[in-house]
Write a structure and sequence with these properties.
Rossmann fold; DNA polymerase, domain 1; 211 residues
Length: 211
């Protein structure tokens, strides 16, 4: 008999909050000028940014890396604004669906992210939802930059399961990257691939224990 779903795990960018990486690329190109083509979307996953998402590289080191790409003096505020440009809105209907799940499930966030984006997301969340902070509705917030690990490595999923005190079969995970879903499924977690920015109500678990 299938295990009843107890915990619903959401990725952040592209699932909970709309995401457009090209807005950040465009913002950096305006700041830095010609030559910023080296930072294409695929290269946002190169080792430097992976280390930043694991918290190995500090925000100060990240900003200095960006400054090293141009001779222009860039302030922390200019860099942060460009970096956060990819974080868009939290649609009201999407949030209402997620909020409704709270009656039947524990909810958590599992995101590959960084401190600058976390702070921006929390600000957006406070402005666009009835809650001041995600912790008011989500039972746990699992951010890679505070965990020292990131998806799709299996150890981050294992930590989530341990801290939520559940079996893999008792969780369902929503993410917009196939590789992240693949690892979750390999561990026994139910995985749902979301087309970026297009989470729908019918994808979500129903009430009365349906998953």
């Amino acid at each position: 008999m299938p295990q009843k779903t107890k915990v619903v795990i959401f990725d952040l960018g592209g699932v909970l909050i709309n995401l457009d990486i090209h807005k950040t690329l465009d913002a950096f190109k305006k700041l830095i000028g010609h030559g910023f083509d080296i930072l294409e979307e695929a290269q946002l996953n190169q080792s430097f940014y992976m280390e930043y998402e694991k918290g190995i590289i500090s925000c100060e080191q990240f900003r200095e890396h960006i400054r090293g790409l141009t001779e222009r003096p860039l302030s922390d505020q200019e860099i942060d604004k460009a970096w956060n440009a990819m974080l868009l809105d939290i649609p009201q209907d999407r949030f209402s669906w997620i909020e409704a799940l709270k009656r039947d499930y524990q909810l958590c966030i599992l995101s590959n992210t960084n401190v600058i984006h976390v702070e921006s997301f929390h600000q957006i969340f406070g402005e666009q939802t009835p809650y001041k902070h995600p912790s008011e509705i989500f039972d746990q917030l699992f951010y890679s930059c505070y965990m020292g690990k990131r998806k799709p490595d299996s150890d981050i999923y294992t930590e989530v399961l341990e801290k939520m005190n559940i079996m893999p079969e008792e969780a369902v995970f929503y993410d917009d990257k196939q590789e992240n879903i693949d690892t979750a499924v390999s561990l026994g977690i139910k995985g749902v691939l979301v087309e970026r920015n297009f989470l729908t109500k019918k994808m979500l678990p129903g009430s009365n224990g349906r998953a």
